[in-house]
Amino acid sequence: MTLAGVRVLLGVSGGVACYKAVALARGLLKAGAEVQVVMTAGATRFVQPDQFAAITGRPVYADTFTDVHRIVHVEVARQADVAIIAPATTNVIAKFAAGIADDLVSSTFTCLTVPTIVAPAMHTEMWLHPATQAAVDVLRGRGTIITGPGVGALAGGDEGPGRLEDEDVLLDAVHRAVGRPTIAEPHPLSGRRVLVTAGGTRERLDPVRYLSNRSTGKMGYAVAAVAAELGAEVELVSAPTALDAPAGVTLTPVESALDMHAAVTSAAPDADVIVKAAAVSDFRPAQVADQKLKKGTFGAGEGGTVVRLVANPDILAELGTRDDLDAVLVGFAAETEDVEAHGRDKLARKNLDLIAINDVSATDAGFGTDTNRVVILGREGFRHEVALTGKREVARVLLDLAAARLRS
Ligand code: C5P
């Protein structure tokens, strides 16, 4: 009875996944919680309120105006220790974010002062739509816990991110939200070691100058943050960025491609998953001056001076040739033309399990943005397109796909 004495408000909005909310209610009751259900009108078309009333032993509210004198939305919100909205449609998510309270579920949400979990379930297109993502960001910013969606089979035979998270994951979220020890099956990455690289390397010319690139590290940091949230032990080997290390992540700061090569080479044998999101400079100055180069070094006029560059090791390609590694290898490819063909070529050439390809000529994806749009290819011929969405969402899809390829 891990939730004994906990009063859970279960909000159900209208989606095919509604029937799973019945199982969730049952799971909550089994764990000892009291469960109060509120439903949207849409939800009542999928599941009869009586179904919930029968198993929870309490009236189910679906209409703000059933008992006007009781002001139900205020009452049920005050009586909850924790709230979970499952499934949460894009419609209720948008209403919650905007503070619209035009039915019982949204009115109740607007009264809540307790930890609140939103478990989205919808088609991939709706989930990835910028409006949905913006609303989710607003909620996250206010401290709402967003659990899921999972990746998998959706209504109508489709597949992708948008599935209501499994019952045990949702139960786990409720336990965490009220500070109770969890009972759920952990995510497959839980306890696994994930090595992530991020940022653009700096290749020194002299003590104050370097060659680098436009990478900000945002994508790699998102991968590290999400992996840690999924319970993985994460080492983030990072070239310089302006970002703070995500919570629960071990940061190994490096500067150049050679530093990164050394750090990754030593950490790789222990890793279960390696995600290389760093923009590693392909070359470095052949010589690094001990002292700051003077203006005069480069002469006057048009002729200039030749700076000789030498090739850096391709860290990822090298990992792909090592047969002492068990890790699932994930690379990124930043391309500006023939994007997918170049990515496919890198997947094969570097002997990777997965590659996320992005078109860095776009202004809303790639370098510096908080959003990304990628095509993910798998060694076995798998192809999945992630339309423009937050880098955290891209990270989650990639990590779920990597988790599915974990070696025993
Ligand atoms: O060949 P390209 O640089 O486009 O490949 C990109 C992928 O390879 C990224 O995952 C990047 O982190 C990795 N890489 C590397 N070492 C290099 C160059 C790229 O690990 N020297």
Can you walk me through this structure?
- The protein is of the alpha/beta class and 408 residues long.
- It has two domains: 7-177, Rossmann fold; 193-288 and 300-407, 3-Layer(aba) Sandwich (Rossmann fold), CATH 3.40.50.10300.
- 32% of the residues lie in helices and 24% in strands.
- β18 (371-378) and β19 form a beta hairpin.
- Cytidine-5'-monophosphate binds next to α12 and β16.
Keywords:
Rossmann fold, 408 residues, 19 strands, binds cytidine-5'-monophosphate, 2 domains, alpha/beta, 32% helix, 5-stranded parallel sheet, 14 helices
Task: Report the span from N to C terminus.
Answer: 33 Å
Q: pLDDT below 50 for ≥5 consecutive residues: which ranges?
A: none
Query: What's the number of helices?
Result: 14
- The overall average pLDDT, rounded, is 91
Helix and strand composition category: alpha/beta
CATH class of the largest domain: Alpha Beta
Described by the principal axes of the CA atoms, the overall outline is elongated
How does CATH name the architecture of the largest domain?
A: 3-Layer(aba) Sandwich
CATH fold description of the largest domain: Rossmann fold
Bound ligand species: cytidine-5'-monophosphate
Helix proportion: 25-40%
Give, in spatial order, the strands making up the sheet with the most strands.
Answer: 12-11-8-13-16-17-18-19
Return the domain count. 2
Largest sheet: 8 strands, mixed
Strand elements, count: 19
Question: CATH homologous superfamily of the largest domain?
Answer: CoaB-like
Radius of gyration (Å): 25 Å
Strand content: 15-25%
